[in-house]
Amino acid sequence: MKKFALFILILAMAALAMPVSAQTANDKQPYYGYEKVVIGSQTWMAPDYINLEAFPPLGGKLSERDARILQLHKEPLKTEGWYVNEIRGRRTFEVIWLDKGTMVWASNASGEPRYLASCGNRISFLLAHQITYMTSPVVEKTTEAAPIVSENSGGYTMPGWLRSLWHGLWNLFLFLLALALVAMLLALAFVLGRELYENLTGRSRDVQPQPQARPRPMGPRPIVEGPAPVPPPPAASFHRYGPYDHVMIDDEGTKGYRVTGVNGDTEIPLGTFKWAQTENASDQGEYVVVMV
């Protein structure tokens, strides 16, 4: 029991330490020249010179209405070279090569390219001084940024309120899980502390007293009076009647046998018996033997 409780305690401490270590790892910036930018409920790692608040990643192609709101116009890229392009799945940016003539959405005021027209990815110039120390992966020369959003998908992304609700529920679940782990730790600490205290003080749990056998008294055993024995059934007795000129025996079922002696025209009822049988009396007629 003690080893099992200690094992559960170690598992609970490891589970509580996992979110802390994961958060510590996420707080570190993976690339030099990058900074953490929070857009809505998402955290992006972007080059420190890109203004994501004014022109955030949209998650899909721009519509004409979005372009008017952001004050953008569509034009071919005037200068080929290395640019930084968003990676939506990883919420960071990579360095890619864009050819001259690639269609982009550019700012009306400065003319700086902001988004790729083919997929809506957020792009920006790669500054010359950033090339020496930016460690973002460089991909092969291409004319379009990946991933490409299909024409029919429209670049659908999860609404902000739904993302906020999801993150809120997830945080609530983690909070309840932490409370459960804390309660488990307290219970295990109480059990281990009590066991340790009992071992140190020499106390043990209450032992139920065992019943003691009383000595058997000496002398003759007392006679216990019980119910009177049932007397045996009386022995069957047989009688013989007669002689009669004729004996009639009628079977009356459960009542027995009704026996009648006949002398001439006179019938003499003898009674009802359990069993009856006639015997030959020679010239005198018949006897009847009955069981009473």
TrEMBL record:
Q: Specify the domain of life of the species encoding this protein.
A: Bacteria
Record field: transmembrane: 169-193
Keywords of this protein's UniProt record, alphabetized? Answer: Membrane, Signal, Transmembrane, Transmembrane helix
Signal sequence segment: 1-24
Quick one: where's region Disordered? 203-230
Q: What is this protein called?
A: Uncharacterized protein
The species this protein was found in: Candidatus Zambryskibacteria bacterium RIFCSPHIGHO2_02_FULL_43_37
